[in-house]
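=== How it folds ===
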Amino acid sequence: MTIVSQVKFQDIGVVVCEQVDVTLPALAADEVRIEPAFIGVCGSELHVLAGGHPFAKPPMVTGHEISAVVVEVGSGVTNARVGDHVVVDPIMACGKCRACLSGRFNLCEPPQVAGFRAPGLGRSSHVVPARNLHLAPKGLAMEILAFAEPVACAHHCVSRMPVDAREDVLVIGAGTIGLSIVQALRIMGAQKITVVEPEARKRELALQMGAHRVVAPGELAAEERFTGVIDVVAAQATLTEACTKVMAGGTVICMGVPSGPREIPLPSMQRFERDLLSSGMYVPSDFDVAIAWLADGSFDTSKLITDVFPIEQAADAYARAKQPESIKVLIKFKN
């Protein structure tokens, strides 16, 4: 038996760090055993903790943003070795459906994502498929590497937007993902970036991340239009604003996770060929780009990682993540 530490949502609103005795499972040929260094606290997990997620409900082990070390490999694994520093893609796809066979594992149905329908990664020992690993340089700090999952989300989102729509982009919302998207837009050549965000501190961070202008909600002029709009909130009001602020022939990306159905102004969308696209998580290549950006310093996390808590203080980490001024909270597994 081995004692494993894990971050668990014991009940709605209740986070615990618990020690459990487990028998570590033997590895299949295509599996690896990992030990996390850091996990990130995500807004989607806060929805689960509050009881608002459609299918993920406490009690459950949480965690899907992770940096880790490989400690054991299966007999058939060729893409990783013991001691490698890795990010784990949390999408536990079937590998057999039409989407998976085309490399779009994010579209596998029903989605099996660690910490939601699949077991969470927030435990001190975990077995995952080797295909879900993405190797990182050992010189890249593990707390920075833990930010790869939000960066992958941002890269995938911006990749969904046509290049010509990146000329003059409006980003609605400047939380962790919104600020990551601002950096991704900058790196990927957006000519002008405007951000709408209610929190003054986050507006300032958006400017530091590469936005050319920031405004509070309601401050955009009525006549302003943008070649592309990314809605990171997905509320009815923000989606309506996105669809009415995009130019004729422009593109709207819905990046936020809506809590329910939304209406869109379809007559003007249809008449003026305004495209509404969505962005759902990432594909493997997004992680490779994210790690490269983090490793070469193109993507800066220094102002985005606001707090680091030891695993024993996991409850405090989730409480901190709920505060409006928080950006990214990490939980540390190793000293």
Remarks:
- The two ends are 23 Å apart (CA to CA).
